[in-house]
Amino acid sequence: MKTVTNLNKDWKFIYSKDNTEHQVNVPHTWNGDDGQDGGNDYYRGTCTYIKHIKKPEYPADGAVYLEFKGVNASAKVYVNGELAGEHDGGYSTFRCNITEFLKDENEIKVEVDNSVNDKVYPQRADFTFYGGIYRDVNLICADKCRFDLDYFGCNPIKIDPVVKGTDGHVTVTAYAAEGTVKIAILDADGTKVAEIENGGTAVIKNAHLWDGVNDPYLYKAVATLSQNGEICDEVSANFGFRTYKVDPKKGFYLNGRLYPLRGVCRHQDRPHIGNALTKAEHDEDMALIKEIGANTLRLAHYQHDDYFYDLCDKAGLVVWAEIPYISRHMSGGNENAISQMTELVLQQYNHPSIVFWGLSNEITMMKTNKKDMLATHKKLNDLCHKLDPRRLTTLACFAMCSFGNKSAHISDVVSWNLYLGWYVPGLFLNDVWIKLFHAFYPKRAIGYSEYGAESMPNLHSAKPKRFDNTEDYQLIYHAYMLEFFARNPYLWGTHVWNMFDFAADGRNQGGDPGMNHKGLVTFDRKTKKDAFYLYKAYWSKEPVLHLSGKRYKNRTGKKTTITVVSNVGAVEIFNNGKLVAKPKAQKGGKVFKCKIKLEAQNEITVKAGGLTDGATFVKVNKPDPSYKVTSGNSMSWEK
Ligand code: GCB
Question: What's the pLDDT at 367?
Answer without folding.
Answer: 86
